[in-house]
Amino acid sequence: MDEIRGDEIQGDEIRGTARGTAPVPLSVLDLVTVGQGRTAGQALRTGVEIAQLAERRGFHRYWVAEHHSMPGVASSSPAVILAHTAARTERIRLGSGGVMLPNHAPLVIAEQFGTLEAMAPGRVDLGLGRAPGTDGATAAALRRTDRLNEGADDFPQQLMELTRFLDDDFPDGHPYARIHAVPGPVQATAEGGVQSSARPPIWLLGSSGFSARLAGVLGLPFAFAHHFSAQNTVPALELYRDSFKPSTVLDAPYALIGVAALAADDEREARRQVLTGALSMLRLRSGRPGLVPTPEEAEAYAFSPMEREFVDNWLVNIVHGTADEVRSGLDDLAKRTGADELMITANAHSGEARLRSYGLIADAYGMPEA
Known about the structure:
Blueprint: H1 11-14, E1 26-30, H2 40-57, E2 61-64, H3 78-86, E3 93-100, H4 106-119, E4 124-129, H5 136-143, H6 148-153, H7 155-167, H8 186-189, E5 202-206, H9 209-218, E6 222-224, H10 233-243, E7 255-263, H11 267-285, H12 295-300, H13 305-316, E8 319-321, H14 323-337, E9 341-345, H15 351-364
Parallel strand pairs: 1-2, 1-9, 2-3, 3-4, 4-5, 5-6, 6-7, 7-8, 7-9
Helix pairs in contact: 2-15, 3-4, 4-7, 9-10, 11-13, 14-15
């Protein structure tokens, strides 16, 4: 497999800095959740408010994740959301956590993220996943084919094609040698060009060992979905580190993990808020996706024994409680996994609860307000 070059990428664009007393850099993963009685527009405005709060308090990056056909998640178009957010922030890194590569032509992603890089130079991350981010029927509609396994199996080849578009370095004789992703490096090398040839760093995302190993072999940063695959976290990170080969992108492994965490003013309120996300996930896994229910509905819901077991198992992996309890849980997770960065996702019915949670976590770590 070809090496991923990323000649204009420096490790400093990837590695974050811990703020206050946080054990590692903290970041935000936003699913742009839509609660009952709320609109997608309100959810998107809340996302901007979360990014602005994260920027003020020293969170390192703000990512959004591609999902489809889920009424309670309004993040189907990460590039559009990131462009909107870039215009309303100044310093925080913005990225996809992730874009699902098999859903898209590599050239389209290179153009979208080249455009974002032109809008917010040096602030854009391109996180890539190989899952569809939805059910099989929706994936087939997105890809215009029902051969879904082919997309995942071809992921390494798609990744290399995307990288060559980003670097504008297809070899002579290649069918795409005369095709350029614009905005992109071709505008730096064209006559009179003054544009930087820098492009967004690529991250590989995963919830199993495939992307962990691939990220290690290619010397790329790796993001693991601990928030929904906690049992695989430590093995995947070990596989990534054991497989890692230094590259022009990184001289040593760098891994972040997505963490579901929510802080509230007291334990009961935190429990009420995370229960809404658990019920929403139960309905999604049962083929009944909908808007995120209210805390009142979640508390009143009559769970069957099987449903109660699912919810209890789901909540075990959500760090929730008071700010001090969440801080303790995050500290323990960072120590146990050795993660280089924690990316926190706070899923709840209301935007106010999510904003409150990020503020409380920042306070708990003494992260200074800019």
